[in-house]
User: Fold this.
Amino acid sequence: MPSALPDGEPVPADGALPASALAGAAERPLGFYLHVPYCATRCGYCDFNTYTATELRGTGGVLASRDNYAETLTDEIRLARKVLGDDPREVRTVFVGGGTPTLLAAGDLVRMLHAIRDEFGLAPDAEITTEANPESVDPAYLATLREGGFNRISFGMQSAKQHVLKILDRTHTPGRPEACVAEARAAGFDHVNLDLIYGTPGESDDDWRASLDAALGAGPDHVSAYALIVEEGTQLARRIRRGEVPMTDDDVHADRYLIAEETLSAAGFDWYEVSNWATSDARRCLHNELYWRGADWWGAGPGAHSHVGGVRWWNVKHPGAYAGALAAGRSPGAGREVLTEEDRRVERVLLELRLREGVPLSLLREAGLAASRRALSEGLLQAGPYEDGRAVLTLRGRLLADAVVRDLVD
Assistant:
C-alpha cells in the first residue's frame, strides 16, 4: 500500500455510499483487506504506509498503540456492516497485510478475523491470508493462526543472499523463510506463498537463481516475484542518488524475469498474473484476483483503499488520526471518487491484461484495437486467444506489459 494518497471528494461522516454502489451488491463477491501499519524497522526500499515505534512516539498517543489496534480496526469492520447494509453477503476473502501484521499478537489477528465472521459471515471456502515476517513467527504463533481460521500465509523472503538482504535492509537471516514454510505446513497451512524481489543493486544472476532454488526447495505452492522499484523518498533512493549503490536497469529486470519463468515453470509452477506463479489454479491468490477483476473489497486500517460498486475511497494515513476518527464515531475516510463507466473500462484493461486469461477485445476502442493488432504482429500477444476475441500476453509481452497496456487503453 503506497504511502501517497490521491485527491478526491469528501467521504460522508457516516461513510454512506451512493445507492448505485450498493445496487446488486449481494451478487458480487466481497473481500476484506486489513492493514496493520506497524514495522519493527523500516526497509530501505519501502514506500508503504507503515510506522515504527519511534516514528509513532508522541504523535498518536494511546490511540496509535499496537496493543489496542485489533479493537480499533474492529470498529471499522462494524462501520462497514452499517454502510454495506443488511443484504446477506458472506465474505469470500480476507487478507491481512502491512507493515508487519505478525508484530501483533496472533490472538489479535484472529480477533480481527472473527469480527468479520461475526458481522458478515465467511463463505465456507473463504480464503484467509496473512502476510508474515519470518522473524516474527514461531510454531506456536502459526498454530494459533491456523486454529483461529487462517488457511493461507505469505512470507516475505525477498532473497536467499545475505548481501542482497542487507541492501534491502531486511532483518531476517537467510534460511529462516524456508524454515517458516515447514513450520506453517506443520501447523496445518495448505497454502503458503513466498515473496521474492529481483533487481536489487549488487544482485547477480546467480544470486537470483540461488534465491529461486531456495524458495522452491522450501515447498511453497505459490511464489510472487516482483522487480525492485526504487521509490522517491526512500532510503534506497537516497543511497543510489549518493552513488553508494548502483541502480539496475530494465534489461537486468527482463533477464531476471526470464530466469524466474524458466525456473518456476520447470518446477511445475504456472504464471497466472505477470508477477505471480502457482502450482495449480486452486493455489492462485483469490484475494488479489478480486483487485485484478474489479470486484468489491473493503480496506480497513490507516491509508487502506476500498472499492464497492464503482466507488473507490481511502482512509486517512496516520494511525492516530485513523483511531481518533473511529473513536469519535466518524468514518476514517479521507477521500473518494465515483468511477465513470469509462474509468471502469480502462481499469479492466489495465488489470486484466496482466492475467493469464487476458482481456476481451470487446473492451478496446478503435485505437486500442489497432494497437492490439500491432502487438499481435510484434509477438506481444498470443495468436490463438486473439482469434477467440481475447488479448493475452506472450512471454515477451509480459516483459513489456506496461507498454502494451498503455497502447491498448488508447
Summary: DSSP finds 17 helices and 14 strands in the chain. The two ends are 27 Å apart (CA to CA). The longest strand covers residues 122-132.
